[in-house]
Write the structure tokens for this entry.
Amino acid sequence: MFIASLGWDHAGWSGPFYPDDLPPEWRLAFYANEFRAVVVPAALWRKADATTVGQWVADTGEGFRFFFEPDVGGAVPSRAVLAVLGERCGGVLGSGGVAAAHWAGGAEARALRDVLEGMPADGVLLVAGEPPSLAALRMAQTLVQLLGRDG
């Protein structure tokens, strides 16, 4: 099971998560040190080229997974993007068997646990919001570990 935020570049995370002096181009690597997955917003993956995606791969560890926000027009990431990601590609949320649940609430342990227990073992919990709640991301990640569902 994967816990992920929608994107990793949130201005509201400067200070509470990202050090104020962290260069923006290091944010994905910093994020990937704490979390195992991210959902790439459609606006970002639509304009990404192979070089950009190659940098994403270089900035993350081997077990890190990239999932994609569905595009309202039904578009999917290009073959070039998918080829660069290889096994790091988790797929498009809600399609191709990628089960996802959305969470926009806070870090209420009981409610998060109920959602996680109702998800398939290979599902993705997308923590949404602007910015996504760091407390909810961390709580969900801890619960997944306690439930023995962290792969």
The mean pLDDT is 91.
